[in-house]
Amino acid sequence: MCEPNRSSNDWTPEEDATLRRLWLAFVPTKKIVEQLPGRTYASIAKRRGKLNLPKRSGAGVSPMERPEMQQLWKALKKHKATRAQLAKRADVVPATVSKFVKLFRSQFHVCGWVKADPNGDYAEVLKAGPGKDAPKPAPASASERCHQWWERCKRERPLDAGRRLARDAVRRREREGKLVRRDAAAVALFGKDGLSGPANDG
């Protein structure tokens, strides 16, 4: 059951202390509302003025001072992270992290790179403070990507990998003229032509 909205004049000292602490820590207003049951966005904005707390958005407020940017900066100063990790820590969308990177670029550096996906793409690892950016690794070549795919296939789909190896072996022997007679197991597994899959009796 939701608590009813409370009067803007009956703030307790404990509520004021909570509002002041969260506001100055750049906690988003949405989170502050969750911490103060019965309070609305409007009542928090009004009380912020009564307590003479600084504005965090609107005219005269730098984009770098917005709560979500400060949350990201706080998360990065605590520990190095990729963009995806920062978004998760600060509970923001990737687009907000991109804005943060542009605004704070002079205050951090790229300390390394990690594999971002199985295709070989890399993600930069950001670290607060000055430093020389680590160079991005060269992209994987076509042969390297093919090798990575094959290794992943053997790990994740060993049955398919085994069938592919057996099929390739049959084709190679046929090209070399060494496959004189197909045995029953090969026909059952690959079909009479070696390509069509298991034989269909019906």
Quickly describe the structure.
50% of the residues lie in helices and 7% in strands. The protein is mainly alpha-helical and 202 residues long. The chain has a two-stranded antiparallel sheet with strand order 1-2.
Key attributes of the depicted protein:
two-stranded antiparallel ribbon; mainly alpha; 9 helices; 202 residues; 7% strand; 50% helix; single chain
Q: What would your notes on this structure say?
A:
The chain is mostly helical. The protein has nine helices and two strands, in the order H-H-H-H-H-H-E-E-H-H-H. It has helices at residues 13-24, 29-35, 41-50, 67-78, 83-90, 94-104, 142-156, 158-175, 184-190, and strands spanning 108-115, 122-128. The protein is elongated and about 95 Å long.
Largest sheet: 2 strands, antiparallel
- The dominant shape is elongated
What is the C-alpha radius of gyration, as a whole number of Å?
A: 30 Å
Mean of pLDDT: 83
Instruction: Name the helix and strand elements from N-terminus to C-terminus, one letter apiece.
Output: HHHHHHEEHHH
Structural class: mainly alpha
Strand order in the sheet with the most strands: 1-2
Number of strands: 2
Q: What is the CA-CA span between the terminal residues?
A: 64 Å
Helix content: 40-55%
Strand content: 5-15%
Low-confidence stretches: 196-200
Count of runs of 4 or more consecutive helical residues: 9
